[in-house]
Amino acid sequence: MSPDAVGQYGAGDAIRIDVNRDGTITPMRARVLVVDDDPALAEMLGIVLRSEGFLPSFVADGERALAAFRDSRPDIVLLDLMLPGMSGIDVARAIRGESGVPIVMLTAKSDTVDVVLGLESGADDYVVKPFKPKELVARVRARLRRGEDVAPELLTIGPPENQITIDVPAHTVSRNGEEVKLTPLEFDLLVALARKPRQVFTREVLLEQVWGYRHAADTRLVNVHVQRLRAKIEPDPERPEIILTVRGVGYKAGTG
Amino acid sequence: MTSSPTVTGSSPSSRRRRAVRESWHGLLGWFARLFGGLHRAWRRSLQLRVVTITLVVSSLLVGGFAYLIADKITNILLENAKSDVLMRLQNGQDYSAKQLSLYSTPQEAQLQETIEGTVNYLAGGDPQQTNGVVVALTADRYTGVIEARSSSDVEYQALISRELRAAVADGNVAHQIRTGRLTGDRTKYLVYGSPVPTRFGQLELYYLVPLDRQDATAADARATVVATGVALVLLLGLLAALVTRLVVTPVRVAARTAQRLSAGLLDQRMVVDGEDDLALLAASFNQMATNLQRQILRLEEMSRLQRRFTSDVSHELRTPLTTVRMAADLIFAERDEFDPAVARSAELLQAELDRFEELLTDLLEISRFDAGFAMLDAEPTDLVPMVHRVADRLAGLAERVGVELVLDVPSTPVIAEVDPRRVERVLRNLVGNAVEHGERRPVHITLGIDQTAVAITVRDHGVGLKPGEEKLVFNRFWRADPSRARQTGGTGLGLSISLEDARLHGGWLEAWGAPGQGAQFRLTLPARAGDRLTTSPLRLVPADAVLPFGGPRDGGPSAIGVGTGADLATAVPVTDLAGAGSGAWSTSVVAASVTTSAPRRQPGRNPSADVSVSDHTPDGGPQGGPTPAGTAGRAEVGS
Questions:
Q1: Which residues are bridge partners to B403 per DSSP?
Q2: Under an 8 A CB cutoff, do A130 and B357 touch?
Q3: CB distance from A170 to chain B under 8 Å?
Q4: CA–CA separation, B24 and B542 (whole Å)
Q5: Which residue, A20, A230, B151, B467, shows the most beta carbons closer than 10 Å to its own?
Q6: What is the DSSP letter of A30?
């Protein structure tokens, strides 16, 4: 297996404005880093992504994934979980260590352990192989679709002593004046809950609003990300005060 | 015993009787307990059994021997005494005969004195030193003429029995053992009598010899024998206990070790000590344990490899399949530009890829169950929206094949601790199957709950299942009728996976079916994960089912109906046709329309109440849907 075989699809394209096949305009071609060791799949992914107006770049092993990530500064990462060298889980963790860029896992395993492990290591979403091209593109688009509503909006939730302030257009979150680093997905999740405090969101509704799934998919996505979010903003994640669980229903934002 | 005020007035005798009865019962109970305890100990302890048997058998043997020995000793002592006395008697007889030979008639003057002298001589003088031996010379034939004389002044007459007298009188030497009181204590006497011939006739000489010394000796011997015997028996018992202990202890150790082994502590071994049989037992045991351990580890390793293999196959097959899938999608999207044959090929490729994917997914799922790798990811879940979701998803298919989906779910949330992905998969499967086999007749989905369990039944009115098929449907790759056209192209693994999913929850998935009456599948899950199911809130056999033999419809009456009763949907809805028989199904269906969205707006109501096919549709909306009058009216129509 030669990783270089896919090098011909590397990013080098300088076009910043492009017309998609369906006529819509993507102001900037979104850069996609594909981390996959299977050359045929990588090539196929390249064909599909290109035809959908993305700008893919490729890396075939985990060891070089982080370097490639720094070089290509992608807008989204497609990450195979089983990689030679460094595993996909470690790659996700490493990328999360320095960036909140969306990560979509490509996994052959749909077992809870694998999926949850991947999500906990920092992935925002996952697609189980074999996936359909449309499904993948929809997931990628959903992860990239953000920053559309830029109306000034300042949200606050949580008990008074642990007030969380969200500046929506600036994409910043602070607890008691201290800024908290959130990934875009965690930010979206928090905003979705904070916009309607006291309303209980079922996992299905959150999947639709935050992840863009039309049909309820895997509620583990929600559970894992709520845990990650709590770990960042709750004073005591074991006894949450800001994002509350409503047993048997879902989650809601806690208010003072 | 407590006595209430009214009882105090009763007679004391009745109270005493009762007390006696109670204490008797108490005693009986105590004995029963004791006996039970002994019985248990007897059954459980090999040592106890061996020791008891040894004690009993050795007691019998030793007792027998002791008796024989004591008897022999007594006999020997007696014989010795007899021969002794006999000798003296003969001497005495000779002497007496000699002394009395001087007299020719009994009336002679000196005779009495001679008798006296003879007796005294024979007794050996001082009565104190004769060891209690009494010598008597009597003359039974000359009573009144000759006076009987004895060596000491005691009532010896009573000791000489009539038979002995008669025997001696007949001229025999005879003897007898008699017990009597001559001086002080009662003593056994050996009484020897011998005739003494004289010139005028016969006198009788008697020796009364006390046997107290012989008795004492015999008693001593007996005591010794008994003591020895008891000691021997006890020693034997002790020996048996020790020997069995020697054997039983390693056996017990082996049993304990075996228990530990079976509990999973595979490195447990016995101590091999020496080269005897028990060491052989220990060595063989250890060898067995080692082999077992090796086998188990090998199997575990194989299972691990199997799981690993499953996982690897999963990855290795899925990655190229993803590429193929994407390529096929691209080709499929462009099929309009190809010539018809290639375009059709692209369609076939696409469709078969779907099937291939499903099959692969199902196979991997099954192998995951087989490897024991499936895990339950339970969380409190509301099943009502799930049922609606499944119905919505399958609405398209149902519409295509002309099947109406009828939902009967409570309006309140039905929350159970389940793995939502798995339960939804089971539901999709059941409803999908029902739609596929629905024969353009309605499919009923009912959700029920009670305190401990939730249940979902999916009923179709298709061709139904033949007897025995309700078990077969869960077999892998089983097809009811291979020749039938398939609409959904299932993999043949769906129900097997569903069954495994139900089992993983500790739940049940059961099927009922009758030819011409359709089939009903019931999924029952415990409301709390890990609980044991005992009953299901819904019945497996639908109320409208016509049973050929009128046999029981379900596991028991407790499994029928709804536990809480009040506000929940039950299996009642379709009872209207019970009297009409199965034929009504085929005639009353006019049209089928999909009304699955109705229940969402009108939860719990009969979703098709306003549709023209309502002739037989369930009206048992639980929350006061159609009125009882409606039910009655419809029942009239049905019957």
A1: none
A2: yes
A3: no
A4: 59
A5: B151
A6: P
Q: What ranges make up the beta strands (E) of B12-112?
A: none
Judged on CB neighbours under 10 Å (0-12, 13-18, 19+), B83 is exposed
Specify the amino acid at residue B369: F
Q: Which two tokens stand for residue B127?
A: 């009565």
Is B258 exposed, middle or buried (CB count within 10 Å of its CB: 0-12, 13-18, 19+)?
A: middle
Spatial distance between the Cα atoms of B104 and B108, rounded to a whole number of angstroms: 8
From the list B314, B327, B377, which residue is nearest A44 (CB)? Answer: B327
- Residue B445 confidence (pLDDT): 94
Q: Is A134 on the interface with B (CB under 8 A)?
A: yes
DSSP state, residue B147? -
Q: Give the three-class secondary structure for A104.
A: strand
Which of B309, B310, B322, B377 should be substituted to probe chain A, the one whose Cβ sees the most A Cβ atoms within 10 Å? Answer: B322
pLDDT confidence tier of residue B10, bands split at 50, 70 and 90: low
Q: Strands of B46-185 (E only): list them.
A: 134-138, 149-150, 174-181
Q: Identify whether the C-beta of residue B47 lies closer than 8 Å to the C-beta of residue B248.
A: yes
Cβ distance of A108 and B420 shorter than 8 Å: no
Token pair, residue A103, equals 């990560």
Look at residue A185 in the predicted model and tell me its pLDDT: 87
User: Which residue is associated with the tokens 């996909």?
Assistant: A88
Could you report the per-residue pLDDT of A100-154, keeping only the tens digit for each?
889 998 887 766 677 888 888 888 888 888 888 888 998 898 888 765 555 667 8
Choose among A108, A215, A247: nearest Cβ to B315.
Answer: A108
Q: Quote the pTM value.
A: 0.52
Assess contact for B356 and B490: CB atoms under 8 A.
no
Mutate which of A6, A129, A140 to test chain B, going by most B C-beta atoms within 10 A? A129
Residue type present at position B139: A
Q: Percent of chain B at pLDDT above 90?
A: 15
Which residues make beta-bridge pairs with B382?
A: B415
Tell me: the pLDDT tens digits for B467-494?
888 888 888 888 766 655 555 557 788 8
DSSP-derived letter for residue B593 is -
